[in-house]
TrEMBL record:
The SCP domain, residue ranges: 44-195
Protein name: SCP domain-containing protein
Pfam entry (one): CAP
Matches recorded under CDD domains: CAP_euk (cd05380)
Superkingdom of this protein's organism: Eukaryota
InterPro entries: CAP_dom (IPR014044), CAP_sf (IPR035940)
């Protein structure tokens, strides 16, 4: 019988994650079923990733996101993310290559976290939450305006991928490489940015006319939703 060992989150990180998702749930009447052409993730798993990202994007857009002892500026034209089965498949294929997954693609962002000494055998949904908290934790530890070290540059780049205002699609997955668990997300459209804040500061949207990055967009509680004019190949 396999003995499954898993790392445990600190209590404050668990509380932070729960509060973020609780805050998001106030805006959701019924969760959309997110089905893709593979069954590695459930709809609930996909919502762990998607809901976390949209929750923090909404908090930032409305000026409610703390950054150490202050708040980030509000964001205009901050778009709500949708789940992409194609991006999910792409990141899974890349993670399955183990150490050769790191080649970047123009126009795409990629965040990856790894757990070592991990025994495979179950869907690591607990580790999904740990990964998201780890990516976001730099916001509680360092100000975005402070000088950055090599470590904080890499950590803030993960946040930049999560907060790039014009990004509309996300797909996440995981893979085991012997006793190493890789969890990652891909973002589109998204590219490496050197900007301290990966969005244009300004009031969050209140009306559809405030959402101008993509045609036929609409506003929903501080986040813009991309219009569906034309074929959207990254969603479905």
């Amino acid at each position: 019988m396999l003995t499954m060992t898993r790392p445990y989150a600190t209590s404050n990180k668990i509380v932070s994650f729960v509060l973020l998702l609780f805050g998001y749930s106030l805006y959701s009447v019924k969760a959309q079923i997110l089905d893709c052409f593979n069954d590695q993730l459930t709809s609930e798993d996909r919502h762990i990733f998607l809901d976390f990202h949209n929750a923090v994007r909404r908090r930032v857009a409305k000026g409610k996101q703390a950054n150490v002892d202050e708040y980030l500026p509000t964001a205009s034209n901050m778009y709500k993310m949708k789940w992409s089965c194609l991006l999910e498949a792409e990141i899974h294929e890349r993670l399955s290559r183990c150490q050769s997954y790191r080649k970047k693609m123009d126009g795409f962002g990629m965040n990856i976290h790894e757990f070592s000494d991990f025994t495979p055998g179950y869907t690591p949904d607990f580790e999904f939450e740990e990964t998201l908290n780890e990516w976001w934790s730099v916001m509680e530890e360092f100000k975005v305006a402070e000088p950055r070290t090599t470590d904080t540059v890499e950590r803030f780049q993960k946040v930049a991928n999560m907060l790039s205002a014009s990004t509309t699609h996300i797909g996440c997955s995981y893979a085991f490489c012997q006793e190493v668990l890789y969890i990652g997300c891909m973002y589109h459209p998204n590219g490496t940015t050197q900007a301290r804040i990966p969005y244009k500061t300004g009031p969050s949207c209140k009306h559809d006319s405030d959402c101008t990055t993509y045609r036929h967009s609409r506003c929903s509680d501080g986040l813009c939703i991309k219009g569906m004019a034309g074929r959207d190949v990254f969603y479905g």
